[in-house]
C-alpha cells in the first residue's frame, strides 16, 4: 500500500496563511520538518493546541501508547 505524501506542500500551494498544530509527531524523522517548512514559506504555525487531547485521539497512529 502506498503511503500518502505529507500535506505540507498542498498547504503551501493552496495559500493557507495559518496552521494550528494539535501535537508534534514523535517520529524523529519527521517530527518538526513540516512545521519548519511551513514557517520557511511564511505560514504562521501555532503549536500544541489541546496537545493531550490530540495525543489521546491519535495515539494508535503516533505509536506512543
Overall CATH architecture: 3-Layer(aba) Sandwich
CATH C-level category: Alpha Beta
CATH topology-level fold name: Cytidine Deaminase, domain 2
Q: What count of domains describes the coordinates?
A: 1
Biggest sheet descriptor: 2 strands, parallel
Number of separate strands: 2
| Beta-strand content estimate | 5-15%
Radius of gyration: 13 Å
Supply the helix-strand structural class: mainly alpha
- Spatial shape: globular
The CATH superfamily bears the name: Cytidine Deaminase, domain 2
Runs in which pLDDT lies below 50 for 5 or more consecutive residues are: none
Task: Compile the SSE list and pairings.
Elements: H1 8-14, E1 18-20, H2 33-40, E2 44-46, H3 51-62
Parallel strand pairs: 1-2
Q: Key terms for this structure?
A:
Cytidine Deaminase, domain 2, mainly alpha, 3 helices, 65 residues, two-stranded parallel sheet
Can you offer a commentary on this structure?
The protein is mainly alpha-helical and 65 residues long. The chain has one domain: Cytidine Deaminase, domain 2 (3-Layer(aba) Sandwich), CATH 3.40.140. It is 42% helix and 9% strand. It contains three helices and two strands. The chain has helices at residues 8-14, 33-40, 51-62, and strands at 18-20, 44-46. Strands 1-2 form a two-stranded parallel sheet. The relative contact order is 0.22.
Briefly, what is this?
By secondary structure, this protein is mainly alpha-helical.
